[in-house]
Amino acid sequence: MTSALRAAYPPGTMPKRDEIMASPRPAASPSAPGRAYLRYGHATHQGLVRADNQDAYGIFPREHADPTRGAGLLFVVADGMGGHQGGREASQMAVHQIEERYRASALRDVAQALRQAFTDANAEIYTRSTQDPALQGMGTTCTALVFRRNRAWIAHVGDSRAYRITEEGIEQLTQDHSRVEEMVRQQLLTPSEAATHPQRNVLSRALGVVPEVEIDLIEAPALETGHTFLLCSDGLADVPVEALHEAVRTLSPQQACDALVQQANALGGHDNVTVVVVRVEQVPRPATYRWGAFFIVLAIVLMALLLMGACGGPPAQ
Ligand code: CA
How many helices (H) and strands (E) does the chain have? Predict the structure, then answer.
């Protein structure tokens, strides 16, 4: 935990987090047959205990799902904290700022563009919190995922998570920036002790709480068809990782998001929950396309046979 965070939130007094920016479901249009595209789903819920939802998420752009176009596709999940107004403001600011800054970035390097977007969003949220007493001390987690061509990058601050699911299994790509997870990494706590620790929701790093923040940047291995990524706020923490894997493996991205939100609520719905699932798929070739290719090959073979017949006819007497 940084000293500034500790000053803002003494241990055990970190404000609860809650609420949402409701994003309309995007109509993603697949690209040309045979090309890779991203099939995704998203869901959020305030849970069964909190009075509102301070989670926020965003997907950019909405017009297409082709990672080879322009700056690729950006997915962002944020989980705000800092009282009723502050938590909501911080998470929505993070999503909007990062979408805007990433889109406007002139940097061709995705990792650099993400780092700059997070740095700028952090400064904006921090400045806003110092200008309005009602927003003092607000902050947010933020996990962003960019797909560009056949690669993916993650930028991350806080305890929201990114997972990658392949045929080999499920892997958590991000580290939780929470006080108890830092203690687990230092071997001061076991994972099972951390799971029930009273300070398990106390963050060690968040966006907007201090003027400058350290940002984790992760590059995923090369993408292949079927690779799936899951972003979530910590409202999904009660759902076992095996259940995440099962839902993503057996359901469509949207069905998986809906099912996992239901599971979080069935386990008590103690917190706001947000889930985004993105799968790399390939646009199927339509039957007419396949028949067209068949007739072209057939015509080439017939022409070759005719030419062979013409050249190999009986010699002149
Ligand atoms: Ca939360």
Answer: 8, 10
User: Which token pair is 246?
Assistant: 């099962």
CA of 237 from ligand 1 middle (Å) equals 9
Query: Residue 245 Cα, ligand 1 centroid: separation in angstroms?
Result: 21
Residue 290 has pLDDT above 80, yes or no: no
How close is the Cα of 264 to the center of ligand 1, in Å?
A: 12
Q: How far is the CA of 6 from the centre of ligand 1 (A)?
A: 19
Surrounding ion ligand 1 within 5 Å at CB are: 17, 79, 233-234, 271
Tens of pLDDT, residue by residue over 75-126, are 999 999 988 789 999 999 999 999 999 988 877 899 999 999 999 999 999 9
For residue 22, give the amino acid letter.
A
At residue 155, the 3 state secondary structure works out as strand
Q: For 168-181, what is each residue's pLDDT tens digit?
A: 999 999 999 999 99
Which band of pLDDT confidence, cut at 50, 70 and 90, is reported for residue 34?
confident
Place of tokens 């299994």: 169
Pairwise CA distance, residues 272 & 76, whole Å:
16
Residue 125 CA to ligand 1 center (angstroms) comes to: 18
